[in-house]
Design brief:
The chain is of the alpha/beta class. It is built from 11 helices and 12 strands. The strands form 3 sheets. The protein has an 8-stranded parallel β-barrel with strand order 3-4-5-8-9-10-11-12, surrounded by 4 helices. The protein has a two-stranded antiparallel ribbon with strand order 1-2. It has a two-stranded antiparallel ribbon with strand order 6-7. Helix 1 crosses helix 2, helix 1 packs parallel to helix 10 and helix 3 crosses helix 5. The longest helix is centred in the middle third of the chain and has 18 residues.
């Protein structure tokens, strides 16, 4: 496992990280015992960065993860959770106000069973872009509230997350330098979309650490194919299906190639994946520690062709 400092935070995190969204039964109904084993497999395999959010499973993921972490020494992992995006009774809600995000951090700590969060992220800031105050509210209200928690020793570092790269760039540009310590972006350093690469120089200039997420592009890069809810266009789905079939014929699962490609960039501190299956966790760790077949990477990119960098709106 390779360990890289996340920006200027001092946290040296594993190049493959564990996303706990699956523990909230986001993708399928999960059992707690299996989820606990998945977390243990991640730690045993050298992963030292765990990401979660109160939004995942509408608080379930944090609750299950908290139980899983009870028997794991606190110095074995860095823990990240988020604020701003929530849900209750099956309905999604958003609240980026100073009071709500402050309360949210304390609520998360209680569910997680910890008294310190290494990294607090403002979750999917594009939703605040469509609310009163827009992204300026993240700069003027959300981030300062988290800085106060950092000053109190409740949080170690502060970051932002989003699908839309331009939103991340905007908030970094309009915040005091050093205020945003890391960004988390998903589906933009994958076999079908490497747009994140265009922004790495900018984030490096501002000393902002970069975390990539969803190496399978939310299921696009899988033999099983995308779930019904996936927002990708039909053309992109078909292109990725052709690529998956090509990899299958080569005897090299596209999931393996996708993970290996996503962790290959040394300028990206870590890539997050999520699974509540301990066997899948071990397999992804094994893959991530191997070099990809670069000829196959080139062939897959050619198959995806003009669907490269075709993206979608968050939901």
């Amino acid at each position: 496992m390779r360990y890289t400092e996340l920006g200027k935070t001092g946290m040296k995190i594993s190049h493959l990280s564990f996303g706990a969204s699956s523990l909230g039964s986001v993708f399928r109904e999960t059992k707690e015992k299996e989820s606990f084993e998945a977390v243990e497999a991640a730690i045993e395999g050298g992963i030292n960065f765990i990401d979660v959010s109160p939004y995942y499973g509408h608080y379930k993921a944090e609750t299950v993860l908290g139980k899983a972490l009870r028997n794991i020494p606190r110095d074995r992992y860095f823990l990240s959770t988020k604020v701003g995006r929530y849900g209750k009774d099956g309905k999604n809600t958003w609240d980026y106000s100073a009071q709500r995000v402050t309360d949210s951090v304390y609520e998360s700590m209680e569910r997680l069973g910890v008294d310190f969060i290494d990294l607090i992220n403002v979750h999917d800031i594009e939703f605040q872009a469509n609310l009163p105050g827009g992204l300026q509210k993240v700069v003027d209200e959300t981030l300062p509230a988290l800085f106060e928690l950092k000053a109190k020793g409740i949080a170690g570092h502060v970051g932002i997350t989003d699908l839309q790269l331009q939103n991340l760039k905007w908030v970094v540009e309009h915040s005091e330098k050093g205020a945003v310590e890391s960004i988390l972006n998903f589906c933009h350093y994958t076999l079908n979309d490497d747009a994140l690469e265009d922004y790495l120089g900018f984030f490096e200039m501002y000393g902002v650490g970069v975390i990539n997420a969803s190496p399978l592009s939310m299921g696009l890069l899988s033999q099983r194919g995308v779930p019904d809810w996936h927002p990708a266009t039909k053309q992109l789905v078909k292109a990725c299906q052709r690529a998956a079939e090509f990899c299958r014929e080569k005897g090299y699962p596209i999931e393996k190639l996708a993970v290996q490609y996503s962790v290959s960039c040394p300028r990206i501190a870590s890539t997050l994946f999520s699974s509540a299956n301990p066997d899948n966790v071990r397999r992804n760790i094994e893959w991530a520690n191997e070099e990809p077949d670069w000829n196959l990477v080139r062939e897959v990119k050619e198959i995806i062709g003009d669907q490269q960098r075709v993206t979608w709106a968050n939901s």
